[in-house]
Write the structure tokens for this entry.
Amino acid sequence: MLGDFAHVPDARPVAVASRSAERAAAFAREHGLERSYGSYAGILADPDVDVLYLATPHAQHHAVALAAIEAGKPLLVEKAFTATTPGAEQVVAAARDAGVFVMEAMWTRFQPAVVALRELVADGAIGEVRSVQADLGVDRVYDPADRLFALELGGGALLDLGVYVVSFAQMLLGAPDTVTVAGSTYPTGVDAEAGLLLGWDDGRSATLTTSLRYPTPGQARVFGTEGWIDVLPRFHHPDTIVLHRTGAEPETISRPASGVGYSHELAEVTACLQTGRTESTVMPLADTLAVQWVLGQAAEQLGVAHREDPDALTA
């Protein structure tokens, strides 16, 4: 993330906060930041910090975000937005009531290749979008001490990787009417894998796969009434898409990202703040809530009981 600030002319990183003063200071030295804080409260009180990037474990987003909104600090909140749907609803309500900018850090929506895909869809290149397929899985050795497998930290495939496939489908099809899931869990109570079928009352669908138990290509495909678009791996930060119009030769479209790819969401946040907007039109809070609802429904069906960490600011 920090390296990509070089590609955003009107923004620069200045400070870091951690619940460990030593870790914060070491991070600041490594990355050339002006100052560090051994508590989140410290950076919230810094008058020279215009916007915060919240990258704590998922279960800590809720409490820190609410405190930041109360302090009037705009936020870029790493995905998944929160650990639970009610948590997301509370953060969004607080941001809207206070008029404070908040955006989920779903970098996929800002990748140039994904922007090109959305433009093609909007122009009717493949007709009406009727179905989406996407997968994102990795092979991780089960370790109860790792945050990915810790329920109290918001671990599991859904919140870490599944958020990408769900957000991609929601971006193209809107909020689904039904969620059906099959999967498994680890002994710690987090989900190991999940296959989701999202349904819309008009017959549209999305088939999505996420896993910490086995690797997948990380590819997506968008089906329309007049063709389809392949998003080549890994679809959540792609360089290339392939347009297949009915009756025409495939068309390969390459749109590499600037830097690692985080620069585009950083530029969106910067532009929103400069123009006084409190929400992004590319990643609006309504979309974040729709995605969080799907994740919550899937977790519930798998018996995964995520919860927010109420002590994130003080522990």
